[in-house]
Every structure is written in C-alpha cells, then in structure tokens.
Amino acid sequence: MTERANAIAAKVEAFVRTVVMPYEKDGRLGFHGPEDALVMELRAKAREAGVLTPHILQDGSHLTQRETAIVLIRSGLSPLGPLACNTAAPDEGNMYLLGKVGNAEQKARFLDPLIRGEARSAFFMTEPAETGGAGSDPSMMQTTCRLDGNHWIINGRKKFITGAEGARVGIVMARSDDGACMFLVDLPDPAIRTVRVIDTIDSSMPGGHAEVDIADLRVPADQMLGASGEGFAYAQIRLSPARLSHCMRWLGLATRAQEIATDYACRRHAFGKPLVDHEGVGFMLADNLIDLKQAERMIDWCAGVLDTGSLGTAESSMAKVAVSDALFRVADRCVQVMGGTGVSGDTIVEQAFREIRAFRIYDGPTEVHKWSLAKKIKRDWKAAQG
C-alpha cells in the first residue's frame, strides 16, 4: 500500500474515533437518518481536520481503488463516519460518475459542491415493483423522457431513492426512444414530489429512502450526461465501483462491531469465567475474525481488478455477494455474543446488524448477482467449446 494512502487512512481513523464516535447518541439522529444540520456540523469538523472527501485529491484526481479501500474502511468505523468524511453513498458513487463522464461545465455546477461537502445528492433509478418498474432489472424502466425543443420532459415514479429529501443534486434515469438516459437536475424542483419517505430497517442515510413522483420535469438538453441511449453504460461505470465502496464502508462498521463484542466477551463473566473462554462464544469471535479477513482480501482483489481499467462487473458482483454475506454473519454473531445488550441501543452493534442486513439488498440482492455470475459461467463454457 502507498505511503499517501496509509497516511490518509490513519488520519481518517483518528478523526472518526475521537471526533465522530461521540456523536453516535446525538439527538439529531432520526428513524430516517441524521438531520442535515448534524451532517453539516460533522463535515465542518472534517474540513477543519483535513479529512473531508479524502479519496479525492486537491488536483481533482482520485486515489486508486485499492488506496480508496483502506480509507473508506476507516471512515466506516462509525455509522456517521462516511457522512462526516463525505465518503458516503450515494454521494461517493455520484461523485465518481460525474468525475468520469461529466463535462467541464457539469462538473463545475454539480460535482464541485459535492466534493466540497456543501451539498448532498440522490440517484433516481429504482422504480416501484407494484407497477412493474425497474429494480434489479433496469431494462424494465418505465420513467420516460422526450425531447421538446432544447429541453427534455421526464415523467415517472421512483422508489427507494436514498437521500432525495434534502438533496441539492439529482441524477435521474429515464427511457427515451433511443434507450436509457441520465440527467443532472437541480434540487429541489416542484416537478419532483416526495410521495413518502419509506420506513426501512436501516437508519444511517440522511433523508432516508423516498418514493417520488416526477411530473413533467423539464431539464435543459445540456444537462444530459452523454447522449440519449447511453444511460445503461454510464450506470455500470457508477455501479461497479459503488458496490465495492459499500463493501469497504460496511467492513469498517463490522470491524467496529467485532471490537465491541470482543470487549464485552472479555469483560463479562458467566459460569465462573469470562464469556470469551466459553467455546460457544470464543468460536463465534474466531469465525468473525476469519470472515473479516476474507472480506478484506476480497475487497483488495476486486479493487485491484478495477485499477487495471477493467469494468470489473463480475468481480464487483462476487465481492458484493461474498462481503455482504460475510459481514452479515459477523454482525449477527456480535449480537448473539452480547445477548440482550446486543439487541439494545446501548452500543452501535444493533445498528450495525440492521445496516448490514440492508446491504445484502441494496445495490443488487445476493441472488441477482449470483444469477448474473451463473450467466457468465454459461457464456464462458460455451466460448470454451468453440
């Protein structure tokens, strides 16, 4: 690992442990995520400490994916860490996408405020299953766009849009006659109406996850990313690294849960000895150590593939499946080791369990990624047969 990445990661970890963790009981933490006032207060502290948006350097260049991994893992040691350091989803993925495909004007208007931590963003892709809209299968997209002079008119409904409430930058996907399209949108906009903020198992994302109605949204043609019909290609540019970034952040949180469960098991006594000395408990912590190390290695391997310039769709799917399932096992065992305390709000272990459980669904359920990998196996087999 590079010296610069190790130095940034150490600085981020010190900030998260000393400054961010004391905020984990703050009264501005709600069922639908932290209030924006809390996010901005933490970002101000991160800016002062020199750890705001640490994966993007002063010249606008990014750390490599392998370097980014050790930084984002450290930021994830607290549920609030990624928000404070501006490495959280969906902003981190949106910044990556805009950095790759946005033109100079689009970057200045939409990307720069995100990098500075002055604004939040939302990615409008998923649609309600009740109406047959796009979810894991983006080809089912029902939101439409049509050209009207020098504007595009967008209509549709989106669901599970993380951070839509309070976001200032939106990336909206819609379908034209040419195929999928992506648009940059200033928020709020009266044509985008929040129907409801959905109650979900997780609670770490500002603004929660919203269902929104889009009615005759007019977007200037120069706010389209690329050309009409190129939206799916751009979605893949965003989603492959974004899946891996999720793995990085949640590995940090699972590592923290393991630290708390280990401390509990070593201090708590039952039946004449510390809990850790009972095989039923000690073995769970040992299994956690194995899962955490395997997750770390999987992330590093996939990051290395992405750093070669490969899109890495299959690799990111493998990492998403392996890491999300492993970290869920870790979080589940931590709850079990701690008993009643593990299901209480006395520590962040209970929240870690909820957040990581949701991670097995977000950015593609485990089963969808396995299905995609199975298709690749079949394609590769056919190719080998000549």
TrEMBL record:
<protein>
    <submittedName>
        <fullName>Acyl-CoA dehydrogenase</fullName>
    </submittedName>
</protein>
<dbReference type="InterPro" id="IPR046373">
    <property type="entry name" value="Acyl-CoA_Oxase/DH_mid-dom_sf"/>
</dbReference>
<dbReference type="Pfam" id="PF02770">
    <property type="entry name" value="Acyl-CoA_dh_M"/>
</dbReference>
<feature type="domain" description="Acyl-CoA dehydrogenase/oxidase C-terminal">
    <location>
        <begin position="229"/>
        <end position="376"/>
    </location>
</feature>
<dbReference type="Pfam" id="PF00441">
    <property type="entry name" value="Acyl-CoA_dh_1"/>
</dbReference>
<dbReference type="GO" id="GO:0033539">
    <property type="term" value="P:fatty acid beta-oxidation using acyl-CoA dehydrogenase"/>
</dbReference>
<keyword id="KW-0560">Oxidoreductase</keyword>
<feature type="domain" description="Acyl-CoA dehydrogenase/oxidase N-terminal">
    <location>
        <begin position="2"/>
        <end position="118"/>
    </location>
</feature>
<comment type="similarity">
    <text>Belongs to the acyl-CoA dehydrogenase family.</text>
</comment>
<dbReference type="InterPro" id="IPR009075">
    <property type="entry name" value="AcylCo_DH/oxidase_C"/>
</dbReference>
<dbReference type="InterPro" id="IPR009100">
    <property type="entry name" value="AcylCoA_DH/oxidase_NM_dom_sf"/>
</dbReference>
<feature type="domain" description="Acyl-CoA oxidase/dehydrogenase middle">
    <location>
        <begin position="122"/>
        <end position="194"/>
    </location>
</feature>
<comment type="subunit">
    <text>Homodimer.</text>
</comment>
<keyword id="KW-0285">Flavoprotein</keyword>
<dbReference type="InterPro" id="IPR037069">
    <property type="entry name" value="AcylCoA_DH/ox_N_sf"/>
</dbReference>
<dbReference type="GO" id="GO:0050660">
    <property type="term" value="F:flavin adenine dinucleotide binding"/>
</dbReference>
<dbReference type="InterPro" id="IPR050741">
    <property type="entry name" value="Acyl-CoA_dehydrogenase"/>
</dbReference>
<keyword id="KW-0274">FAD</keyword>
<dbReference type="Pfam" id="PF02771">
    <property type="entry name" value="Acyl-CoA_dh_N"/>
</dbReference>
<dbReference type="InterPro" id="IPR013786">
    <property type="entry name" value="AcylCoA_DH/ox_N"/>
</dbReference>
<dbReference type="InterPro" id="IPR036250">
    <property type="entry name" value="AcylCo_DH-like_C"/>
</dbReference>
<dbReference type="InterPro" id="IPR006091">
    <property type="entry name" value="Acyl-CoA_Oxase/DH_mid-dom"/>
</dbReference>
<dbReference type="GO" id="GO:0005737">
    <property type="term" value="C:cytoplasm"/>
</dbReference>
<dbReference type="GO" id="GO:0003995">
    <property type="term" value="F:acyl-CoA dehydrogenase activity"/>
</dbReference>
